[in-house]
Amino acid sequence: MKKFKDKVIVVTGGSRGIGKACCEAFAREGANIVFTYNSSQEAAKSLKQEIETSGSQVLALQLDVKKYDACRKFVEKVLDKFQKIDVLINNAGIINDKALMMMSESDWLDVINTNLNGTFNVTKNSIISFMKQRKGNIINISSLSGILGLPRQANYAASKGGMISFTRSLAREVAPLNIRVNAIAPGFIQTDMIKGLREDYVKDVLPQIPLGRFGEAKEVAQVALFLAGDESDYITGQVLRVDGGLGM
Ligand code: NAP
After folding, report:
1. Pairing mode, if any, of strands 179-186 and 58-62?
2. Taking the domains of the chain in order of start, what are their residue ranges?
3. Residue 178's pLDDT is what?
4. 2-58 pLDDT, tens per residue?
């Protein structure tokens, strides 16, 4: 029996990278998948086809997580189709690395509005459904940067650190309703996001990773499966690092 059969998993930013790997991993375990994309329409289309052939139901919707009303309508559409959400994975995110001196207000706001406010926008609009079910599971994809802080990432680290505090506060608030809220803090994972980093920076980082390599998106997805499943029933408010040991 597949572990997530008949469960409904919502993944924001599912078109590429870690979000895509999460969609594939949960579909392999029999889940019905709702995923959003922002600009990657073609990638979303092909992922939808891929998941449909595995036998799961899929809903792929365009959503800019920065927009509160759009997030409200998105959740309404999900509930119209599936009547419930079992697991929400707040994954959509961007970087825009710059020294603070060079960081414009819009560089700051874009990252905060996407990563942190986007997490609020989708979670806030889903929480009532979890509360009514007296069951729920929320996984926020934060970052090691949100724990350690990294140079040229004041905007990104602040957004990801904010996601960690959001995770802990909400976990305490909704634990009595049997809703678990956890975060994953990936280190360097091989996706398009890493391609945007400066080459010399990436070269410097690699020798500092105890496991000696960057991670793969599917290795983050495996941890999401664990946090979403019954094996982690007694875990809430935690931040699980998936970083090859970099942050220890
Ligand atoms: P990625 O390959 O660049 O994918 C980012 C995803 O987010 C895409 O699906 C993108 O959608 C979506 N997205 C971006 N802006 C959005 C918006 N305004 N509204 C809705 N969706 C939006 O990045 P990734 O590496 O998979 O990162 C996924 C998450 O992991 C992010 O939160 C990131 O901060 C976190 N993370 C990544 C790493 C890493 O090393 N890769 C490390 C730590 C944390 P479209 O393609 O459709 O625009």
Report:
1. unpaired
2. 8-242
3. 98
4. 999 999 999 999 999 999 999 999 999 999 999 999 999 999 999 999 999 999 999
Regarding the beta carbon of 136 and ligand 1, being less than 6 Å apart is answered: no
Element counts in the chain: helices (H) and strands (E): 10, 7
> Residue 11 and residue 31: Cα distance in Å, rounded?
12
Tokens of 226: 């664990």
Q: Would you say domain 8-242 falls under CATH 3.40.50.720?
A: yes
Distance of alpha carbon 90 from alpha carbon 82, whole angstroms: 19
Neighbours of 240 (CB within 10 A): 19
The two tokens of residue 31 are 């889940």
In angstroms, what is the span from residue 176 Cα to ligand 1's centroid? 31
* Residue nearest atom 18 of ligand 1, based on CA coordinates: 64
Q: Is 182's C-beta closer than 6 angstroms to any atom of ligand 1? A: no
User: Has this prediction a pTM greater than 0.90?
Assistant: yes
Catalytic positions are 156
Cα of 13 from ligand 1 centre, angstroms:
6
**Residue to substitute in 191, 192, 243 for testing ligand 1 pocket (most ligand atoms within 8 angstroms of CB):** 191
Contact residues for 20 (Cβ-Cβ < 8 A; gap 6+): 14, 35, 43, 47, 217
Q: Is the CB of 17 under 6 A from ligand 1?
A: yes
